[in-house]
Design a protein that fits this description.
The chain is of the alpha+beta class. 49% of the residues lie in helices and 16% in strands. A hairpin with a 7-residue loop joins strand 3 and strand 4. Bound molecules: zinc ion.
Length: 97
């Protein structure tokens, strides 16, 4: 009787482990609230896929910049909003000065 109980418990433990692992994988694969931005001008980038060359995966949405590449800066949405506010203040200061 004891033997059977032990086996049963072990199986439950294994399932629990699998469930925990799956949760970790999902958390890593879907980073929430992450914004991909251009490393040159810090504007949001747009995913263009492997249309031209495999190294050109993202395109800057800022027409003045025109950056294309695959190395983008990933920051949290909170940081991005903060940065935009700072940029607004900066451009205002420049206009005033
Ligand atoms: Zn740019």
């Amino acid at each position: 009787m004891n033997k059977i109980n032990n086996q049963h418990n072990r199986k439950n433990d294994e399932y629990a482990n699998i469930g925990a692992k799956r949760e970790v994988v999902i958390a890593r694969r879907s980073p929430k609230d992450v914004v991909k931005i251009c490393p040159i001008c810090f504007s949001p980038v747009r995913y263009i896929g492997n249309v031209f060359e495999f190294i050109l995966t993202y395109e800057c949405t800022n027409p003045d910049c025109g950056w294309k590449g695959n190395i983008v800066v990933e920051i949290s949405k909170e940081d991005y909003e903060e940065m935009k506010e700072k940029q607004k203040k900066k451009s205002k200061e420049q206009k005033n000065g």
